[in-house]
Write a structure and sequence with these properties.
8-stranded parallel beta barrel; alpha/beta; 455 residues; binds cobalt (II) ion; 21 helices; single chain
Length: 455
């Protein structure tokens, strides 16, 4: 049989600890193993994204741009991958094209070599600017477009194939099936990968979470169907709400046509280190660190990264007993708002709305602005148009409904406007990086600048 080695993208530096340890891993806990990770032979090391950026500023007192510089200094061979939310960048709003382009350029300058770009609603309009800018970066990063995977009456393997074709036409170098909640079942994955391979020429990568227990089986069927790259996490941070285990996958495909060529033995000291890091994180931040398999995620569809935070939040508010009510309310709210895939920011928006509905004991008694924005099209087109009766019932008038999202984005602040705003707050000559941090997370960035003596 023809050899077709499958490649592995390692998520230990981003998604793995985001999913199991609330994104709390520090750069100091990564550095001791970066050289070893660089020598493994991974396709890429995912290391940067929205939650890592946010957590650096908010909890860890780390400058996310400096983290990227440190990673770049140690990773000489393996591309650094970041996860970018299209027109949302790493924040929760939509940004002006000017800010999107500036951010992508800076990230590339600081060492991002794989841009994985997605939009929560799979609305191509929201991907256009960031993909275009990433393709123009002088460092020539790899640009990957995402199919944000979900299950609904409005999503089929065929609709995902159509989206993949568009991403290829836009110039993407590869396509990622981003299954953030672990909803992709093994035989569905086989069918989807076969259809994608028949429809597009660029490589296909698969990213799943183990939440529902399908992970390893899904990867096996996808690999047999021709998927080119799979996302895995080293053993201490694998499975549960994280990715399938790197070591397991290496051994699964060893001595088969799909042999990764990677050595499980070489990973033993690296995993030993990260097992210690995990124990430290669980202790320091009072985390649970593991999650039971939950096939019912097929109904509530909360992504791995969010589930760990949600459990902590409910615990803090003494509302642990409402957990199941909340999970039951999620799919109802999602249907009301046009079946968006649940991933940041739509997952947070739907999650918050569902939480309010459960806490108030009455549905839509209190409706947050972000939920109204999602319903009226401020984040792009929802897979199914939201019913007008529903829009009216939560206080949205016909003239509030947004048809052309790019016109709305143009009204947002430019980089120069954010710079002026920061100057007015008392930070006179900020670096471009600090202006961008401020644009994304205004309040916590300011607190961070003050703590660091920059303003
Ligand atoms: Co993920």
């Amino acid at each position: 049989m023809e050899k077709k080695p499958v490649k592995i993208t390692e998520t230990i530096l981003r998604d793995a600890h985001q999913s199991l340890c609330a994104t709390r891993m520090r750069i100091a806990q990564m550095v001791p193993q970066l050289e070893a990770l660089d020598n493994v032979g991974y396709n890429a090391l995912e290391a940067w994204g929205g939650a890592t950026f946010d957590t650096c500023l908010r909890f860890l007192g780390e400058d996310p741009w400096e983290r990227l510089d440190t990673l770049k200094a140690h990773l000489k061979k393996t591309p650094i991958q970041m996860l970018l939310r299209g027109q949302n960048l790493l924040g929760y709003n939509h940004y002006n094209d000017d800010v999107v382009r500036a951010f992508v350029r800076k990230a590339s300058e600081h060492g991002v070599r794989v841009f994985r770009i997605f939009d929560a609603l799979n609305d191509i309009t929201n991907l256009t600017t960031s993909i275009d800018e990433a393709l123009k970066c002088k460092e020539h990063p790899h640009v990957q477009g995402c199919l944000v995977y979900t299950v609904s009456p409005f999503h089929t393997n065929e609709t995902f194939v159509e989206l993949a074709k568009k991403l290829e036409e836009m110039g993407c170098h590869s396509v990622c099936i981003k299954d953030m909640s672990g909803l992709l079942k093994p035989y569905v994955a086989e069918d989807l990968v076969k259809k994608l391979k028949a429809a597009v020429k660029i490589p296909i990568e698969l990213h799943t979470h183990y939440t529902s227990g399908f992970g390893s089986m899904t990867y096996m069927k996808a690999v047999e169907a021709g998927v080119d790259i799979i996302d895995c996490a080293l053993a201490p941070f694998a499975n549960d709400t994280s990715q399938p285990c790197t070591e397991t996958m290496i051994e699964t495909f060893a001595d088969t046509p799909y042999d990764t060529g990677l050595s499980r033995k070489a990973l033993i000291p690296i995993s030993k280190h990260f097992a210690e890091v995990k124990a430290e994180l669980i202790k320091e931040f009072n985390l649970k660190g593991y999650f039971d398999v939950n096939p019912n995620v097929l109904d509530f569809q909360i992504p791995g990264g969010m589930l760990s935070n949600l459990v902590n939040q409910l615990k803090e508010q003494g509302m642990e007993d409402k957990y199941q009510d909340l999970l039951d309310e999620m799919p109802r709210v999602r249907a009301d708002v046009g079946y968006p895939p649940l991933v940041t920011p739509s997952s947070q928006i739907v999650g918050t709305m569902a939480t309010f509905n459960v806490m108030m004991g009455q549905r839509y008694k209190m409706v947050p602005k972000e939920f109204k924005d999602l319903a009226r099209g401020k984040f792009g087109h929802t897979p199914k148009a939201v019913e007008h009766d529903f829009l009216h019932s939560i206080g949205i008038k016909d003239e509030d409904i947004i048809v052309d999202i790019s016109k709305e984005d143009a009204k947002e602040n430019t980089v120069a406007q954010f710079r002026d705003e920061l100057a007015k707050e008392g930070y006179a000559n900020p670096t471009d990086e600090d202006v961008l941090s401020f644009a994304l997370f205004p309040e916590i960035a300011k607190e961070f600048f003050v703590a660091k003596g920059r303003m």
